[in-house]
């Protein structure tokens, strides 16, 4: 089960660390520097035949990523580049994503593609909104788990600017 979770985690990582944003309504919207809090909700998790206790464990693991605070400096947000993030997403985890759609403009995100990690291939789609002080992205992951069964997972990742950086908040590297 951990193998296919890795691919979904790639999408969460991208949403959590921020889709780069600029003030131009035709281009990406620029994130505001400061402290960002992220909430993750498992909306749907279906694997035929999986015991309910395993599904509950998966929900707990995914939603356990909620409440994370990250500090983004002005320099960091100025350098953010979603195209570059999408291009390298997954490569650091021994995986790779090929994006068939990368529409990130005017406060909207609509991205789709196929990601491969740990020998598994999954279809991934991300759709939502991005504003200077909030992003709300739904990530849908579909594919086959090692047993050959179909799997579908839908997560909602909401990141909100909460003000100046807080002491103890992780700084994005």
List the helices and strands and how they pair.
Blueprint: H1 2-17, E1 34-46, H2 52-63, E2 68-72, H3 74-79, H4 82-88, E3 96-105, E4 108-117, E5 120-130, E6 134-144, E7 150-163, E8 170-171
Parallel strand pairs: 2-8
Antiparallel strand pairs: 1-2, 1-7, 3-4, 4-5, 5-6, 6-7
Protein name: DUF3617 domain-containing protein
InterPro entries: DUF3617 (IPR022061)
Q: Could you give a short description of this structure?
A:
With 173 residues, the chain is an alpha+beta fold. Helix content is 24%, strand content 44%.
Total DSSP helices: 4
How are the strands of the biggest sheet laid out side by side?
A: 3-4-5-6-7-1-2-8
Main beta sheet strand tally, sense and closure: 8 strands, mixed
Determine the structural class based on helices, strands and strand pairing. alpha+beta
Q: Number of folding domains?
A: 1
Low-confidence stretches: 1-7, 12-25
Question: How much helix is in the residues?
Answer: 10-25%
- Beginning-to-end CA distance, first to last residue: 29 Å
Q: Look at the structure and give the mean pLDDT.
A: 77
Count of beta strands: 8
Polypeptide structure, described:
- The protein is α+β, with helices and mostly antiparallel strands.
- The protein has one domain (2-163).
- 24% of the residues lie in helices and 44% in strands.
- The protein contains 4 helices and 8 strands.
- The chain has helices at 2-17, 52-63, 74-79, 82-88; strands spanning 34-46, 68-72, 96-105, 108-117, 120-130, 134-144, 150-163, 170-171.
- It has an 8-stranded mixed beta sheet with strand order 3-4-5-6-7-1-2-8.
- It is globular.
- 27% of the residues are buried.
- Mean pLDDT is 77; it is low at 1-7 and 12-25.
- Pfam families: DUF3617.
- This is DUF3617 domain-containing protein.
